[in-house]
Amino acid sequence: MSTTSFSKKTLGLETGEPAVTPPPAGSETTFAKKPKLGSTKSKKRDIPEGLWMKCPKCSTMIFDKELDDNLKVCTKCGHHFPIGARERINALVETCSFEEMDAQMTSVDALRFTGVAAYTDKLQEYQKTTKLKDAVVTGIGKIDGHRLALGVMDFDFLGGSMGSVVGEKLTRLIEAATEKALPLIIISTSGGARMYEGMFSLMQMAKTCGALAYHAKQKLPYISVLTNPTYAGVMASFASVGDLVLAEPGAMIGFAGPRVIKDTTQAELPSGFQTAEFLMEHGLIDAIVPRKEMKERFGYYLEFLIERLKKAAALG
Ligand SMILES: [Zn+2]
């Protein structure tokens, strides 16, 4: 954006009448030292942005660092703020145990999509702001003593949407888990399939589920974790077919959004509709696990699942 066209010079203000009568000669220093009128404003501007976060649930102002130390969970009411894929992985896996897979895989603009914005521009923009190549990070690591395959989505990258790269990275992760006989955990957050890749995005639903079927055939456990929000093509594929489906408290989960459903059914939606709590009550989710307990609960659930699947395998 050009600022020159709005500069004082162009507007001719420099030569115009001063708005305030200039102080007598010699008193400039005193005048400059006491800018009383502007002092409140400049103080406000001095506070660095982003140091405090307001909790959307309880309105408490929380210091950024305090929020980070608490895994982005409100210290007063337990509201779960969004957390990045890398931050989540760091909090979950044992130190230095994570070996990332396909870290450099990036999307291509197969459809040469140009809508409101060109897909290539969007990709570049989000790669820059998130420092991620796409909306999922995958790899092999250790959690609570279990070596496992882990995939974590990041909502900050194009709304966690699933295009070819997200689908391919997850499929390769699932296939690696099958090959190495490892349990699998996928932590989802997504608005659904990626519009910019059209049909290629939709194909990822079948591809990921196909790979999961082979993983399940080997009697290997898969835990799916739904975090806020998990919707559409992701929820309608790999995210909903775990041996165990867990969710973070308060997460919004569904296929179509509540507004679409309300418009279609022309009916009032029940209170708490599409929240993790509502879905657990109705049997879609097995357990709601607070973020801070996730690591420990993974260990517990995996032991249980591995034991059960071993027994099932022995029975044929
Ligand atoms: Zn709160």
Descriptors:
316 residues; alpha/beta; 2-enoyl-CoA Hydratase, Chain A, domain 1; 2 domains; 7-stranded mixed β-sheet; 39% helix; binds zinc ion
Describe this structure in words.
With 316 residues, the protein is of the alpha/beta class. The strands form 2 sheets. Strands 3-4-5-6-7-8-9 form a 7-stranded mixed β-sheet, with helices on both faces. It folds into 2 domains: 34 residues, no CATH class; 234 residues, 2-enoyl-CoA Hydratase, Chain A, domain 1 (Alpha-Beta Complex), CATH 3.90.226.10. Helix 7 runs parallel beside helix 8. The N terminus is likely disordered. It contains 12 helices and 9 strands. It binds zinc ion (ZN).
- Give the SSE order as H and E letters: HHHEEHHEHEEHEHEHEHHEH
Q: Determine the fraction of residues in helical runs and give it as a percent range.
A: 25-40%
Judged by helices, strands and strand pairing, the structural class is alpha/beta
Number of domains: 2
Q: Any idea what the CATH superfamily of the largest domain is called? A: 2-enoyl-CoA Hydratase, Chain A, domain 1
Could you say which small molecules are bound to this protein?
zinc ion
The proportion of strand residues reads: 5-15%
Largest sheet: 7 strands, mixed
Kindly report the average pLDDT value. Answer: 87
Computed over alpha carbons, the radius of gyration is 26 Å
Number of strands: 9
State the CATH architecture of the largest domain. Alpha-Beta Complex
* Inertia-based shape: globular
| The top level CATH class name of the largest domain | Alpha Beta
Strand order of the largest sheet: 3-4-5-6-7-8-9
* CATH topology annotation of the largest domain: 2-enoyl-CoA Hydratase, Chain A, domain 1
Total number of helices: 12
Which regions have little confidence, pLDDT < 50, spanning 5+ residues? Answer: 1-42
Give the distance, in angstroms, between the N- and C-terminal Cα atoms.
68 Å
